[in-house]
Amino acid sequence: MPEQASSTTGSETGNTSICEVLQILGAKWAFLVLNELLNGPQRFNQLRRNVSVIKTQSLTDTLRHLEHNGLVRRQVFPTVPVTVEYSLTEKGSDFQTALKEMDKWVQKWGNSRQIDERTGAST
């Protein structure tokens, strides 16, 4: 098997990197949660309101996955009732660069940009 590992091509290595990123991020909502937490620490219900397109269970699963992979910190405060706050770790904050690049890409190529089929001009 070591021979197979040494014979990977550049594109296979790139695919492996992309797969690793997707495994770390996990759920499809991870990008949205990470982007929201860039605004600072948030309690669960505040985060749920801010990313209202995500169902509660999906948000819970996404936060658990991101915490397990070291991108999100879950801090429990001993209050009555218990207060839980979510924030980005250094690893999670470092993902901001990738999110900004994704934002640039969608600004250029996203669905909100309409092309006039007759002239090819942007509207």
TrEMBL record:
<keyword id="KW-0805">Transcription regulation</keyword>
<dbReference type="Pfam" id="PF01638">
    <property type="entry name" value="HxlR"/>
</dbReference>
<keyword id="KW-0804">Transcription</keyword>
<protein>
    <submittedName>
        <fullName>Winged helix-turn-helix transcriptional regulator</fullName>
    </submittedName>
</protein>
<dbReference type="InterPro" id="IPR036390">
    <property type="entry name" value="WH_DNA-bd_sf"/>
</dbReference>
<dbReference type="InterPro" id="IPR036388">
    <property type="entry name" value="WH-like_DNA-bd_sf"/>
</dbReference>
<keyword id="KW-0238">DNA-binding</keyword>
<feature type="domain" description="HTH hxlR-type">
    <location>
        <begin position="16"/>
        <end position="114"/>
    </location>
</feature>
<dbReference type="InterPro" id="IPR002577">
    <property type="entry name" value="HTH_HxlR"/>
</dbReference>
